[in-house]
Protein backbone atom coordinates (compact mmCIF):
# COMPACT_ATOMS: atom_id res chain seq x y z
CA UNK A 1 0.00 0.00 0.00
CA UNK A 2 1.28 3.46 -0.86
CA UNK A 3 2.31 5.86 1.85
CA UNK A 4 0.07 8.75 2.89
CA UNK A 5 -0.35 11.38 0.21
CA UNK A 6 -0.11 14.78 1.86
CA UNK A 7 -2.17 16.33 -0.94
CA UNK A 8 -5.08 13.87 -0.65
CA UNK A 9 -8.41 15.71 -0.31
CA UNK A 10 -11.76 13.96 -0.16
CA UNK A 11 -15.34 15.16 -0.52
CA UNK A 12 -18.04 13.20 1.31
CA UNK A 13 -21.64 13.81 0.17
CA UNK A 14 -24.46 12.43 2.36
CA UNK A 15 -27.79 11.38 0.83
CA UNK A 16 -29.91 10.78 3.94
CA UNK A 17 -32.90 8.84 2.59
CA UNK A 18 -33.67 5.10 2.65
CA UNK A 19 -36.63 2.98 1.54
CA UNK A 20 -36.78 1.54 5.06
CA UNK A 21 -34.74 1.76 8.26
CA UNK A 22 -32.68 -1.34 9.04
CA UNK A 23 -33.12 -2.46 12.67
CA UNK A 24 -29.36 -2.44 13.40
CA UNK A 25 -28.64 0.96 11.80
CA UNK A 26 -27.74 4.05 13.82
CA UNK A 27 -26.59 6.11 10.81
CA UNK A 28 -28.26 9.39 9.88
CA UNK A 29 -30.87 7.90 7.56
CA UNK A 30 -34.53 8.78 7.15
CA UNK A 31 -37.58 7.26 5.48
CA UNK A 32 -39.92 9.63 3.59
CA UNK A 33 -43.13 8.36 2.02
CA UNK A 34 -43.66 11.48 -0.09
CA UNK A 35 -41.48 12.07 -3.16
CA UNK A 36 -38.11 13.72 -2.45
CA UNK A 37 -37.55 17.05 -4.22
CA UNK A 38 -34.22 16.00 -5.75
CA UNK A 39 -33.77 19.24 -7.72
CA UNK A 40 -34.01 21.26 -4.50
CA UNK A 41 -31.52 18.97 -2.74
CA UNK A 42 -29.14 19.11 -5.72
CA UNK A 43 -29.23 22.92 -5.58
CA UNK A 44 -28.56 22.85 -1.83
CA UNK A 45 -25.64 20.43 -2.28
CA UNK A 46 -24.19 22.79 -4.92
CA UNK A 47 -24.64 25.78 -2.59
CA UNK A 48 -22.93 24.03 0.34
CA UNK A 49 -20.10 22.87 -1.95
CA UNK A 50 -19.59 26.48 -3.12
CA UNK A 51 -19.51 27.81 0.47
CA UNK A 52 -17.12 25.06 1.61
CA UNK A 53 -14.80 25.62 -1.35
CA UNK A 54 -14.68 29.33 -0.51
CA UNK A 55 -13.47 28.39 3.00
CA UNK A 56 -11.01 25.78 1.71
CA UNK A 57 -9.97 26.95 -1.76
CA UNK A 58 -7.26 25.62 -4.06
CA UNK A 59 -7.65 21.94 -3.19
CA UNK A 60 -7.36 19.11 -5.69
CA UNK A 61 -10.08 16.55 -5.05
CA UNK A 62 -8.60 13.03 -5.11
CA UNK A 63 -11.71 11.13 -3.98
CA UNK A 64 -15.48 11.64 -3.74
CA UNK A 65 -17.77 9.38 -1.75
CA UNK A 66 -21.57 9.49 -2.09
CA UNK A 67 -22.79 7.81 1.10
CA UNK A 68 -26.00 7.50 3.04
CA UNK A 69 -28.71 6.61 3.53
CA UNK A 70 -29.13 5.09 0.13
CA UNK A 71 -27.50 7.25 -2.57
CA UNK A 72 -28.66 4.79 -5.25
CA UNK A 73 -32.17 6.17 -4.69
CA UNK A 74 -30.94 9.37 -6.40
CA UNK A 75 -31.53 9.85 -10.10
CA UNK A 76 -28.27 9.69 -12.10
CA UNK A 77 -28.92 13.32 -13.13
CA UNK A 78 -28.83 14.37 -9.45
CA UNK A 79 -25.51 12.57 -8.98
CA UNK A 80 -24.22 14.28 -12.11
CA UNK A 81 -25.28 17.70 -10.79
CA UNK A 82 -23.41 17.11 -7.50
CA UNK A 83 -20.25 15.98 -9.30
CA UNK A 84 -20.47 18.98 -11.66
CA UNK A 85 -20.69 21.33 -8.64
CA UNK A 86 -17.56 19.77 -7.10
CA UNK A 87 -15.72 20.18 -10.42
CA UNK A 88 -16.86 23.80 -10.70
CA UNK A 89 -15.47 24.87 -7.32
CA UNK A 90 -12.37 22.67 -6.89
CA UNK A 91 -9.85 21.11 -9.24
CA UNK A 92 -10.58 17.39 -9.65
CA UNK A 93 -7.67 14.96 -10.08
CA UNK A 94 -7.61 13.10 -13.41
CA UNK A 95 -7.61 9.76 -11.59
CA UNK A 96 -10.23 10.79 -9.00
CA UNK A 97 -12.01 7.88 -7.27
CA UNK A 98 -15.80 8.46 -7.22
CA UNK A 99 -17.67 5.92 -5.08
CA UNK A 100 -21.44 5.57 -4.75
CA UNK A 101 -23.09 3.40 -2.09
CA UNK A 102 -25.93 1.31 -3.48
CA UNK A 103 -28.51 -1.17 -2.25
CA UNK A 104 -28.64 -4.33 -4.35
CA UNK A 105 -32.31 -4.25 -5.35
CA UNK A 106 -32.92 -4.90 -9.03
CA UNK A 107 -34.59 -1.51 -9.56
CA UNK A 108 -31.51 0.38 -8.35
CA UNK A 109 -29.06 -1.92 -10.14
CA UNK A 110 -30.58 -0.91 -13.49
CA UNK A 111 -29.39 2.64 -12.81
CA UNK A 112 -25.71 1.68 -12.72
CA UNK A 113 -25.11 2.62 -16.36
CA UNK A 114 -26.56 6.07 -15.63
CA UNK A 115 -24.27 6.54 -12.62
CA UNK A 116 -21.29 5.50 -14.73
CA UNK A 117 -22.19 8.15 -17.32
CA UNK A 118 -22.59 10.75 -14.53
CA UNK A 119 -18.97 10.16 -13.44
CA UNK A 120 -19.14 7.43 -10.78
CA UNK A 121 -16.29 4.93 -11.24
CA UNK A 122 -16.67 2.70 -8.15
CA UNK A 123 -19.71 1.30 -6.33
CA UNK A 124 -20.05 -0.10 -2.83
CA UNK A 125 -23.00 -2.46 -2.39
CA UNK A 126 -24.78 -2.98 0.94
CA UNK A 127 -25.19 -6.74 0.58
CA UNK A 128 -24.85 -7.53 4.36
CA UNK A 129 -25.48 -11.29 4.04
CA UNK A 130 -25.61 -14.01 1.37
CA UNK A 131 -28.45 -16.07 2.79
CA UNK A 132 -32.12 -15.14 2.79
CA UNK A 133 -32.90 -15.95 6.43
CA UNK A 134 -30.13 -13.63 7.66
CA UNK A 135 -31.19 -10.89 5.24
CA UNK A 136 -34.76 -11.07 6.54
CA UNK A 137 -33.54 -10.96 10.16
CA UNK A 138 -31.39 -7.92 9.31
CA UNK A 139 -34.42 -6.14 7.84
CA UNK A 140 -32.93 -6.00 4.33
CA UNK A 141 -35.24 -5.47 1.35
CA UNK A 142 -33.38 -7.80 -1.06
CA UNK A 143 -32.77 -11.53 -1.40
CA UNK A 144 -29.36 -13.21 -1.71
CA UNK A 145 -30.11 -13.86 -5.40
CA UNK A 146 -30.89 -10.16 -5.99
CA UNK A 147 -27.68 -9.24 -4.20
CA UNK A 148 -25.56 -11.51 -6.41
CA UNK A 149 -27.39 -10.28 -9.53
CA UNK A 150 -26.61 -6.68 -8.51
CA UNK A 151 -22.94 -7.62 -7.96
CA UNK A 152 -22.89 -9.08 -11.50
CA UNK A 153 -24.36 -5.83 -12.90
CA UNK A 154 -21.80 -3.82 -10.92
CA UNK A 155 -19.05 -6.00 -12.39
CA UNK A 156 -20.29 -5.23 -15.91
CA UNK A 157 -20.73 -1.49 -15.23
CA UNK A 158 -17.64 -0.63 -13.18
CA UNK A 159 -13.97 -1.59 -13.12
CA UNK A 160 -14.03 -1.19 -9.34
CA UNK A 161 -16.71 -2.38 -6.94
CA UNK A 162 -16.99 -3.57 -3.36
CA UNK A 163 -19.64 -4.89 -1.02
CA UNK A 164 -20.32 -5.04 2.71
CA UNK A 165 -21.14 -8.05 4.85
CA UNK A 166 -22.13 -8.18 8.51
CA UNK A 167 -20.93 -11.11 10.61
CA UNK A 168 -21.35 -12.25 14.24
CA UNK A 169 -25.05 -12.52 13.39
CA UNK A 170 -27.44 -14.52 15.62
CA UNK A 171 -26.79 -18.30 15.39
CA UNK A 172 -23.85 -17.84 12.98
CA UNK A 173 -21.04 -20.38 13.38
CA UNK A 174 -17.42 -19.97 12.22
CA UNK A 175 -17.92 -22.78 9.64
CA UNK A 176 -21.03 -21.08 8.19
CA UNK A 177 -19.19 -17.76 8.01
CA UNK A 178 -16.14 -19.31 6.31
CA UNK A 179 -18.41 -20.75 3.56
CA UNK A 180 -20.20 -17.42 3.09
CA UNK A 181 -16.89 -15.57 2.99
CA UNK A 182 -15.44 -17.87 0.31
CA UNK A 183 -18.51 -17.22 -1.86
CA UNK A 184 -18.19 -13.47 -1.21
CA UNK A 185 -14.51 -13.39 -2.20
CA UNK A 186 -15.33 -15.28 -5.42
CA UNK A 187 -17.83 -12.51 -6.24
CA UNK A 188 -15.97 -9.50 -4.81
CA UNK A 189 -12.86 -9.46 -7.03
CA UNK A 190 -10.93 -6.72 -5.25
CA UNK A 191 -12.53 -5.29 -2.08
CA UNK A 192 -14.78 -6.32 0.83
CA UNK A 193 -15.92 -4.46 3.95
CA UNK A 194 -16.62 -6.94 6.77
CA UNK A 195 -18.22 -5.62 9.96
CA UNK A 196 -19.04 -7.38 13.21
CA UNK A 197 -22.69 -6.79 14.14
CA UNK A 198 -22.80 -4.26 16.95
CA UNK A 199 -25.91 -3.52 18.98
CA UNK A 200 -26.27 0.27 18.99
CA UNK A 201 -28.39 2.14 21.52
CA UNK A 202 -31.52 3.68 20.02
CA UNK A 203 -31.97 0.96 17.36
CA UNK A 204 -34.75 -1.70 17.33
CA UNK A 205 -32.04 -4.37 17.75
CA UNK A 206 -30.96 -2.72 21.01
CA UNK A 207 -34.45 -3.13 22.51
CA UNK A 208 -34.71 -6.74 21.33
CA UNK A 209 -31.24 -7.51 22.69
CA UNK A 210 -32.06 -5.95 26.08
CA UNK A 211 -35.26 -8.02 26.24
CA UNK A 212 -33.35 -11.24 25.48
CA UNK A 213 -35.15 -11.70 22.15
CA UNK A 214 -32.01 -11.23 20.06
CA UNK A 215 -28.97 -13.31 20.95
CA UNK A 216 -25.64 -12.46 19.37
CA UNK A 217 -22.57 -14.74 19.56
CA UNK A 218 -20.68 -14.64 22.87
CA UNK A 219 -17.19 -13.18 23.11
CA UNK A 220 -15.39 -16.48 22.33
CA UNK A 221 -17.49 -17.17 19.20
CA UNK A 222 -17.19 -13.52 18.06
CA UNK A 223 -13.40 -13.82 18.37
CA UNK A 224 -13.44 -17.11 16.41
CA UNK A 225 -15.51 -15.40 13.69
CA UNK A 226 -12.98 -12.55 13.57
CA UNK A 227 -10.09 -15.03 13.27
CA UNK A 228 -11.88 -16.92 10.45
CA UNK A 229 -12.35 -13.57 8.67
CA UNK A 230 -8.63 -12.79 8.78
CA UNK A 231 -7.45 -16.31 7.89
CA UNK A 232 -9.88 -16.79 4.97
CA UNK A 233 -9.28 -13.34 3.46
CA UNK A 234 -5.49 -13.66 3.82
CA UNK A 235 -5.48 -17.08 2.19
CA UNK A 236 -7.66 -15.96 -0.72
CA UNK A 237 -5.75 -12.75 -1.51
CA UNK A 238 -7.84 -10.08 0.23
CA UNK A 239 -5.84 -9.24 3.38
CA UNK A 240 -7.06 -6.58 5.81
CA UNK A 241 -5.62 -3.14 5.07
CA UNK A 242 -7.84 -1.69 7.82
CA UNK A 243 -9.49 -3.47 10.73
CA UNK A 244 -12.77 -4.05 8.81
CA UNK A 245 -11.67 -3.60 5.20
CA UNK A 246 -9.98 -6.12 2.91
CA UNK A 247 -8.53 -5.59 -0.55
CA UNK A 248 -6.17 -6.93 -3.15
CA UNK A 249 -2.98 -4.87 -3.26
CA UNK A 250 -3.66 -1.51 -4.93
CA UNK A 251 -7.46 -1.85 -4.68
CA UNK A 252 -7.87 -0.13 -1.30
CA UNK A 253 -10.67 2.47 -1.06
CA UNK A 254 -8.73 5.71 -1.50
CA UNK A 255 -11.47 7.82 0.02
CA UNK A 256 -11.50 5.88 3.28
CA UNK A 257 -7.70 6.10 3.42
CA UNK A 258 -8.16 9.89 3.55
CA UNK A 259 -10.00 9.46 6.89
CA UNK A 260 -7.65 6.88 8.37
CA UNK A 261 -4.49 8.75 7.38
CA UNK A 262 -5.75 11.97 8.94
CA UNK A 263 -6.01 13.93 5.69
CA UNK A 264 -8.50 16.70 4.82
CA UNK A 265 -12.05 16.11 3.64
CA UNK A 266 -15.17 18.22 3.14
CA UNK A 267 -18.50 17.00 4.55
CA UNK A 268 -21.50 17.93 2.39
CA UNK A 269 -25.17 17.15 3.08
CA UNK A 270 -27.32 16.42 6.16
CA UNK A 271 -25.29 15.07 9.08
CA UNK A 272 -21.98 15.05 7.17
CA UNK A 273 -18.69 15.48 9.05
CA UNK A 274 -15.60 17.22 7.68
CA UNK A 275 -11.98 17.95 8.57
CA UNK A 276 -10.62 21.13 6.96
CA UNK A 277 -7.34 22.98 7.45
CA UNK A 278 -8.06 26.73 7.43
CA UNK A 279 -5.22 29.17 8.16
CA UNK A 280 -3.15 26.30 9.55
CA UNK A 281 -5.84 25.18 12.01
CA UNK A 282 -7.77 21.89 11.72
CA UNK A 283 -11.56 22.45 11.80
CA UNK A 284 -13.89 19.57 12.72
CA UNK A 285 -17.24 20.35 11.09
CA UNK A 286 -20.67 18.72 11.28
CA UNK A 287 -23.90 19.69 9.56
CA UNK A 288 -27.54 19.64 10.67
CA UNK A 289 -28.76 16.02 10.67
CA UNK A 290 -32.45 16.51 9.86
CA UNK A 291 -32.76 16.70 6.05
CA UNK A 292 -35.44 19.39 5.84
CA UNK A 293 -33.79 21.52 8.55
CA UNK A 294 -30.44 21.15 6.73
CA UNK A 295 -32.12 22.24 3.48
CA UNK A 296 -33.54 25.42 5.03
CA UNK A 297 -30.26 26.21 6.75
CA UNK A 298 -28.31 25.90 3.48
CA UNK A 299 -30.85 27.99 1.57
CA UNK A 300 -30.59 30.70 4.24
CA UNK A 301 -26.90 30.59 5.23
CA UNK A 302 -25.11 28.87 2.37
CA UNK A 303 -24.19 25.82 4.48
CA UNK A 304 -25.74 23.46 7.00
CA UNK A 305 -22.92 23.61 9.56
CA UNK A 306 -24.01 23.36 13.21
CA UNK A 307 -20.58 22.44 14.67
CA UNK A 308 -17.24 23.97 13.73
CA UNK A 309 -14.68 23.00 16.38
CA UNK A 310 -11.04 24.01 16.25
CA UNK A 311 -8.89 21.01 17.17
CA UNK A 312 -5.85 21.74 19.33
CA UNK A 313 -2.58 19.87 18.80
CA UNK A 314 -3.41 17.21 21.41
CA UNK A 315 -6.85 16.50 19.90
CA UNK A 316 -5.39 16.31 16.40
CA UNK A 317 -2.66 13.92 17.51
CA UNK A 318 -5.16 11.70 19.37
CA UNK A 319 -7.41 11.55 16.29
CA UNK A 320 -4.40 10.68 14.11
CA UNK A 321 -3.50 7.85 16.51
CA UNK A 322 -7.07 6.56 16.79
CA UNK A 323 -7.60 6.48 13.01
CA UNK A 324 -4.10 5.56 11.85
CA UNK A 325 -3.69 2.51 14.06
CA UNK A 326 -6.75 0.96 12.36
CA UNK A 327 -4.56 0.56 9.27
CA UNK A 328 -2.29 -2.41 8.59
CA UNK A 329 0.37 0.13 7.46
CA UNK A 330 0.25 1.71 10.95
CA UNK A 331 1.55 5.20 11.72
CA UNK A 332 4.76 7.18 11.63
CA UNK A 333 5.42 8.21 15.28
CA UNK A 334 7.27 11.28 13.96
CA UNK A 335 4.02 12.61 12.54
CA UNK A 336 2.37 12.07 15.93
CA UNK A 337 5.22 13.99 17.55
CA UNK A 338 4.86 16.86 15.03
CA UNK A 339 1.11 17.08 15.74
CA UNK A 340 1.21 16.65 19.53
CA UNK A 341 4.41 18.56 20.23
CA UNK A 342 5.65 15.53 22.19
CA UNK A 343 6.64 11.95 21.33
CA UNK A 344 4.73 8.81 22.21
CA UNK A 345 5.92 7.36 25.52
CA UNK A 346 8.78 4.92 24.73
CA UNK A 347 8.02 2.93 27.92
CA UNK A 348 4.45 2.30 26.78
CA UNK A 349 5.67 1.34 23.30
CA UNK A 350 8.19 -1.10 24.83
CA UNK A 351 5.51 -2.68 27.04
CA UNK A 352 3.02 -3.10 24.17
CA UNK A 353 5.79 -4.62 21.99
CA UNK A 354 6.64 -7.04 24.80
CA UNK A 355 2.95 -8.04 25.01
CA UNK A 356 2.91 -8.65 21.24
CA UNK A 357 0.23 -5.99 20.60
CA UNK A 358 2.40 -3.78 18.37
CA UNK A 359 5.55 -3.93 16.25
CA UNK A 360 8.00 -1.20 15.27
CA UNK A 361 9.87 -1.73 12.00
CA UNK A 362 13.37 -0.64 10.97
CA UNK A 363 12.04 2.74 9.75
CA UNK A 364 10.35 3.36 13.11
CA UNK A 365 6.83 2.80 11.76
CA UNK A 366 4.44 1.52 14.44
CA UNK A 367 1.86 -1.13 13.59
CA UNK A 368 -0.75 -3.05 15.55
CA UNK A 369 -0.25 -6.84 15.29
CA UNK A 370 -2.90 -9.42 14.40
CA UNK A 371 -3.23 -10.23 18.12
CA UNK A 372 -3.43 -6.52 18.96
CA UNK A 373 -6.27 -5.70 16.54
CA UNK A 374 -9.05 -7.44 18.53
CA UNK A 375 -8.12 -5.20 21.51
CA UNK A 376 -7.37 -2.10 19.39
CA UNK A 377 -9.29 0.32 21.65
CA UNK A 378 -7.16 -0.69 24.63
CA UNK A 379 -3.92 -0.34 22.60
CA UNK A 380 -4.91 3.17 21.43
CA UNK A 381 -5.95 4.22 24.94
CA UNK A 382 -2.63 2.96 26.34
CA UNK A 383 -0.53 4.83 23.75
CA UNK A 384 -2.58 8.04 24.03
CA UNK A 385 -2.41 8.17 27.85
From TrEMBL:
| Alphabetized UniProt keyword annotations | 4Fe-4S, Chaperone, Cytoplasm, Heme, Iron, Iron-sulfur, Metal-binding, S-adenosyl-L-methionine
Family annotation (PROSITE patterns)? RADICAL_SAM (PS51918)
Name what cofactor the protein needs.
[4Fe-4S] cluster
Q: Does the keyword 4Fe-4S apply?
A: yes
Location (main, coarse): cytoplasm
- Compartments, as annotated in UniProt: Cytoplasm
* Family, per entry: Belongs to the anaerobic coproporphyrinogen-III oxidase family. HemW subfamily.
Q: What does this protein do?
A: Probably acts as a heme chaperone, transferring heme to an unknown acceptor. Binds one molecule of heme per monomer, possibly covalently. Binds 1 [4Fe-4S] cluster. The cluster is coordinated with 3 cysteines and an exchangeable S-adenosyl-L-methionine.
Which protein, by its recorded name, is this? Answer: Heme chaperone HemW
